[in-house]
């Protein structure tokens, strides 16, 4: 198996190199956003190259990898900003695949999950809201779903909804009374769901952008409820650890590529009478990048094994993924920043790509749990061990109200 | 005098607040670059507000400040990305004003310097070249000027030439035999000077962009020589210290504004049951920003006094300005980065401006001497004191070939 | 005046170089602590060298400097760990001089302040207590003084009382009912005051060590009250800003000396075929040290001017001193740490002194307000400006209960 | 097997907790150095507890672990400063075991290696020399061995020779003509070997200290040559990777223990109206420690597997160990530094141990390759891939003179 994964990773890397990088360059030079026409073409090529669908079960045409395998393959795919999309493993679809696989009914699977896994559709998940709604604190959700005959009516405003434009459906998280929240599967063509503007974020590589989405008098039938009523935030945990870790994998790939680019770049250039590659401060940047990447990779792979053995929503998985997300987001940022510095003036020119990489990566320290929010929750888990006798229970047994102030982090 | 400067700074700050910020927001939201029509309007308003021309002598309609005064006023102007341009003290014009004032003839002053000081024109300086030409190491200049009857013919390619599009003239630094370099004042409409494309840099606020410029069979008469033949790199030192320090002043203003914006932003928002302003990690960011800004301000002002007392090209000025540039560029970056983090998701949306500030600022750690190149030269000056008996002489007496490996840093 | 200060600083530096450094080396090599016999000898030499008493008024035999002057002279004295003691301006005496000068009666001045200023005595101040008493939060003082006929009886335990062993008197801060605290001048030979063990702290250079001190049934007469009953924490503010800033000045001196030592050290050594001074990573350390020192110096001097103009207990002085303390403590630590790294293996050998410097300096980021406590209070002052209309009032008018949670930082 | 290792690690941790920590505390409080009487007692206890000899083959009474197993067990042993010695796996013995196992003859094994593995003796390795000899650059060795009848005569001065006092033998690295170096096994009672003073280093936990050692007219017979004449620096590579990694393992253990101590410490204390464990800046320290430890652990374990699969002297092992050493040394330092900060004033008191931990750890960023030297060699390996076609060959085939400037790092 491990050999297979190594081979898949190499094949993925070659696919990105040959078929995705030229498209990426074209998009960046043109200042264009990633979009669905590009996605469809790339995914077709990925299928032909045998690298489509790292998370898609083999019987649905994918690679069917566990998280340990994904760590190698998604890092390879991540060597391009649009690589994860090309192999059908980009956010928020990857997390939604995990979530639906764990929670949805057979009918919901056929309608929503399988087309998603096959790359026929894209999806969105709508949690974050403008202030004073849910930002980094998901318990502040204000979008509300009211019980009506045969279903629910959802009202509320969401923003930063990745991939909303062009998605087939959106998983909407809404308050459903008594402090509980519930997840609803809302078809994108539901007349009560309106996708507003793409927000002018620094990154341009998410198919479907990051959108404002409004639910206005949006009726959904009972079959649209995902899992149990009132269990929304609990389910959100199922996707959180793998989603965070997947971001780490793909950004790590980009960092590793940029690191190689910078090493090659400075090898051929001179200043002050010596090749730049002989300047000690340049070497310090190269070494620090190598170190950051090695540490990030080891951490991601070790946490991936925890997810595989302990379960996606286990407390060890959540703790590990929070740690990995924080470390890797900061490490990737440091690497890309040093790469820009190694390029000098060319590093702030978008035609050398590394400027674009840095700008694209800026959000990674914020979305899916900012470094500050995550560190708060990491510290609380550590400190709790010194005050309470028992560790947090796994999700199945998780009581609705966990410890003192539950930190259920998200964007 | 000091009272006057304080008053001028307050007036400048108010001018920026009332008349420049609305224009800045418009440009950013529209994704537009700063351009000359905007510049002309803003400078007219600056004149009316009595804040035009910090470096322009009073008799030419300006404020006639020394560097100590400039530190306060340019920080105020810098609270907008386009503020320095609005008051006619943006790069590269400010450095060129210093350079011309120190070196040019009366005729050159009337033709080039005075219109520049009055804001009637803009200027450029052409030093940096594509590899293997002069990048961070100015001694690698390959653009060459050949002696011909009545003048010189310049040939070579330059890039990252700030403000070239729309400038009235460019100071071209070219090799002139025997290892010497010479500065030439080239009218922008000289048929041998071609302004190429604007380079797609991350920043958008420099009037005239950062351009590729080619000199091809470019004839200039003897009167176009600035100062002495062969003294080009020596003169470059005259503008280096004040130019670096001016960047520090204006970026410090932007950092201070962003810091205030972030403090206001988090004061009104809550998460996890408390105002964000009560979260310890948010407070750490706010405090670190306050500290970085205070240290940067104290350093800039103390070095400004050194420039005023010891002279722009003194070794103490050069050393101090290199120190300030390095510290302030890194500090400003840290501040803007923390501000983005304090804004959370909104911090990577360009409609909240702070995302744009971060992206605009990225070049500051590279241009006018990258942090690595500057630290090399700072260290060498420190270490030289432990090997040679006498400190470096001031510019007037500077021998053509200074110590072991002269580090004459630039972009 | 400014010339005089420059001259005094040079003279102080020379005095340290010639007369204090040999004593310092002897103490360090022998693993001995600084003690009073050494202090008396050094202060006699300082008087002869004309550098005694930077804070001592001229009429009492000192230099009578303001904070701006002190910044230069105390930095010079601080080039030795025991230099501030040698010139009679070491903690806690310097802060106590400021406090007594501002608050004490004529009789108290004659009995306590003047001998202190003349170097005939040393003093202590007893605020911090073992948990759950006052640590970084002075409002948690548990030592209590009860009203009795003709005076007060103090009971409680203190620790980390710098200089207690051998001091002539201790300013004890005790709770005096109704939530107020009061300062008492307690003679060290008061039978109710017991100086316990010297605590085994990392630093060895404080005359009198850092001691445990117990007040048990300790009677003091009414004349022992310093200032008003109940105003203890308010008075503590008077000494806080100058005391913090004085630490910055003297540690800056040590950092500057270590920086010079390291530069000299690496200039004469080689590895990997080149002088270490030509290794880029060594140069990075040297440059970063030069930058940190320059920024720290500029900041300290600018805040010193604020203390001189706005008053020791003004809100601007307190804010500035908190900023300077935080920045300088961290910067000094970075400098000394890099110096150790530049020395390599020799850097962790105490016979090269720099190892000792690092260890001695570790406490500076903790005492007189840890970097964390100070950043909290800095942030609160910044953020308060965005919620309340008026800035904090100066000390004279300060209400007993300031804003939400007053941060009155100390060790 | 993996279960066994987990069980061994738990047993080791318990042994340390119960039998080693009390001894450690006694040594620290008394200011005593680790010494052989203590070592012998502890090793006897370790044998009884079944945790003796992680590297000692089972047939010699040890645990016979590979590097992957060692990573878990030595981290457990490292929770005490003297834990690695207690289980007979402290530097330099662990590295010497690897070296001798790979290179020595059957006779040398019986005489030197087996007693070492059984804990009957200690050993030393003498590479580093006072300037201008071998410091961080082993190619600068000046100690020379001259061919004489029946053997060699060694002359030269070494310093920082860990464990020299009380060792049974020293592996001396000396120049043997033609630029080659050779390793010699020198009995400690050889009259030509003199152990000088223990150097006054910051750490006190190495049995036998760090000593000055002189070889004067020191005759050794031919049988004392370790491996081939001229191959000394090549053999040094055999011990380098496992030795560096072993340091990482044990220091990681100490960092993890200190992290737990700090978390427990702040849980029970309050300031400013809240438990310190609720202060955001304290939480940031706790989280950063948790993250640093997790990343360090993942990296160490992944590199340990590389050593096991690729060989101790493979280029991947050397690269990986250099990366791990640099990252872990810096991470451990950050952790211990934050722990001190979390303890506040108590953190700089040696009776709370964490002050001592910080001081002890300072050398780790310097010995066995300073962070700067290692980063240079890491960068060169990365950059070489961009200039030369083939990667470095494994040790067996390594030519005497490798690439441009071979960086063969050591202390």
TrEMBL record, chains A, B, C, D:
The keyword Cell inner membrane does not apply. Its cofactor is FAD. Residues 124-218 form the Acyl-CoA oxidase/dehydrogenase middle domain. Pfam families: Acyl-CoA_dh_1, Acyl-CoA_dh_M, Acyl-CoA_dh_N. Residues 7-120 form the Acyl-CoA dehydrogenase/oxidase N-terminal domain. It comes from the Bacteria. Gene3D superfamilies: Acyl-CoA dehydrogenase/oxidase, N-terminal domain, Butyryl-CoA Dehydrogenase, subunit A, domain 2, Butyryl-CoA Dehydrogenase, subunit A, domain 3. One of its GO terms (cellular component) is cytoplasm. InterPro entries: Acyl-CoA_dehydrogenase (IPR050741), Acyl-CoA_DH_CS (IPR006089), Acyl-CoA_Oxase/DH_mid-dom (IPR006091), Acyl-CoA_Oxase/DH_mid-dom_sf (IPR046373), AcylCo_DH-like_C (IPR036250), AcylCo_DH/oxidase_C (IPR009075), AcylCoA_DH/ox_N (IPR013786), AcylCoA_DH/ox_N_sf (IPR037069). Residues 230-383 form the Acyl-CoA dehydrogenase/oxidase C-terminal domain. GO terms for biological process: fatty acid beta-oxidation using acyl-CoA dehydrogenase. The keyword RNA-binding does not apply. GO terms for molecular function: acyl-CoA dehydrogenase activity; flavin adenine dinucleotide binding. Homodimer. Belongs to the acyl-CoA dehydrogenase family. This is Acyl-CoA dehydrogenase. It comes from Parafrankia colletiae.
